[in-house]
């Protein structure tokens, strides 16, 4: 249960707190944008951006993407009347102003050529100053649209984050007080004045636009009303759905807990509380795989080689050279390991640790090395699977996992209708059920019994005295050593070294075992170094990289933009 809890917390942490890398740490505290519509249809824009930087910075960025049929011209920047250098990269403009831990206010000016579309009745400015590709939050955003001359004849509408934020004053200046706008949001603005104010601009013909704007307003209002109605409905049903699914999760966890108590009771009934090196019917590589949650790494590979020596399938000529003396092994994975190391990496049944470096130095052998490593791992897993240490309940686990799909559509709808509290609760429940299904591979009584034997062995081994250890059979000493090595259990390995240091003080029945164990220790240290180096040499080369390019506009007419810093 503790592992399940840790897994759930880890998954949620990644989901809720994603890791990101920014070129500079900053907040855009305030942004004012003034668009001055001209009689010739051009638009003079002034933007005032206030950035609060934390740490070093080189300047700010502004992405300006023109709509089809328009152009962005004459982009300039200044601070307190002093001109700043501006560098253009496609649609991205870099304004250079370096410093550290400062709050700076940058003025940008530019012209939108043919930014006003003039129709028979009205001329409209329909523009996306930012789009969903914007990487930064605007903490306080205000957009002002100024007519060529004061007028009371004005129609306007804001879309997405600009909806219901606009207000016109007596001179026809429309102020979209948008406040906080998160990154990744759109907010197009649309303002229209009488066409007579744009007498110098080219006209789009006899087409009228006023009715289109009014109809757009009505449709948006109807959409908002329908949205609110649906939101209220989902808000009413959310508690029943979420708490119902939470009850379902609780039942699953209770059943899991009951099963665990039943297995623990069976273990206590069977267990004889005496200290020994367990003999469970599993080979040492299979034991390591089972006790290490299915992981077989270079420590396990080193342990497997020593296990071949322990079982007299392989004879050590010295601490770096081994010769096969018996190929009639108990398990298929032992035969595979011998064929791999002694016939492919080594030659004619002889394997030197240095052969690993020679073999993996040739890049043509890398794929073969990994294929054989994985086939050996799979063969060890087959031994564990054949032992029946886990319940065969894949269909039940799949059913539990698929049951989480019931909540996915509602989770998405909770997000769509901005019910974020219920959405997060639903996500937590879905993740918990999925983790429960993935981690629901339950041990049988036999599997739990084997694990308990080795767990208790690890605890009691820490208190073993040199005298007691020296009374063990040579095979028990070696299996204890191989077990600690294969799991890379530092406590067991450290204890083994301590016991070996005192082995020569005792003259027991197995007086030669101390010498054998010292040889084991030397072989283990040397072999693991070679296997680690071989793995590093043969590891697949995986390189990743990323490059940033100015985004394609996601606003009306393909226009858009965003803000950032570097």
Tell me the β content. Answer: 15-25%
Query: Helix/strand/pairing class, anyone?
Result: alpha+beta
**Major β-sheet annotation:** 8 strands, mixed
Low-confidence parts: 1-8, 16-22, 505-515, 542-549
Number of helices: 15
Shape: elongated
What's the overall average pLDDT, rounded?
82
Q: Determine the N-to-C terminus distance.
A: 46 Å
User: What's the count of strands?
Assistant: 19
Query: For the CA atoms, what is the radius of gyration?
Result: 36 Å
Helix fraction bin:
40-55%
Strand order of the largest sheet: 5-4-8-2-1-11-14-13
Structure description:
By secondary structure, the chain is an alpha+beta fold. Among the domains are: 28-208, Immunoglobulin-like (Sandwich); 276-390 and 443-538, no CATH class. Helix content is 45%, strand content 23%. The protein is built from 15 helices and 19 strands. It has helices spanning 2-16, 210-270, 284-291, 298-310, 332-345, 353-361, 366-386, 394-403, 407-416, 420-438, 445-461, 466-470, 474-486, 490-503, 513-538; strands at residues 25-37, 43-54, 56-65, 71-79, 82-84, 86-89, 92-100, 103-113, 117-118, 122-127, 138-146, 154-158, 166-168, 174-181, 189-194, 314-318, 321-324, 350-352, 560-565. The strands form 4 sheets. It has an 8-stranded mixed β-sheet with strand order 5-4-8-2-1-11-14-13, with no helix packed on it. Strands 6-7-3-19 form a 4-stranded antiparallel β-sheet, with no helix packed on it. The protein has a 4-stranded antiparallel β-sheet with strand order 9-10-15-12, with helices on one face. A hairpin with a 5-residue loop joins strand 13 and strand 14. The protein is elongated and about 105 Å long. The model is unreliable at 1-8, 16-22, 505-515 and 542-549 (pLDDT under 50).
